[in-house]
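Q: Could you fold this chain for me?
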Amino acid sequence: MILLILLLIIFIKADHKNRIAKQTKYLPEFSFINLLHENNFSRDSVLKGKSCLILYFNSECEHCQKEATQIHGDLYFFSDYQILMVSSESKESILAFKKKYQLDGPFIKFLQDQKFIFEDVFGATTVPTSFIYNKDKLLIKRFYGEVKTSALLHYLAY
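A: Sure. Below is the predicted structure, expressed as structure tokens.
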């Protein structure tokens, strides 16, 4: 009986992993709140013809803070791409993070996952997690944990 339960758990985990891999191969459908404009931001809002970095973060995460510091230092190099910073935290926490790390520019959007759907849509449970989609919205690279900006920029250039 225990062996059967273990096999079932393994099957369920493998099935979930395969479903997320298929679901994220191309930029999936999503809807988050664009905090600067107080409107919905969806897959259709992503700029066409530009590579996109989706960074799932938490303002209290030390690795997220380090990555934000690095991105700020190389902000000029990200201006040819679109950056979507997504968090399920409060609007105040997300905007305080934006201000603290000076992540400003028309190419950066701060999005709030009010419905806590990021995990279901993208399969990410840890922060930071980065997804890089090319200009055709094909997933190029997924990073779990802190990533150097040189690696992010390398894959964004695909």
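A (continued): The two ends are 49 Å apart (CA to CA).
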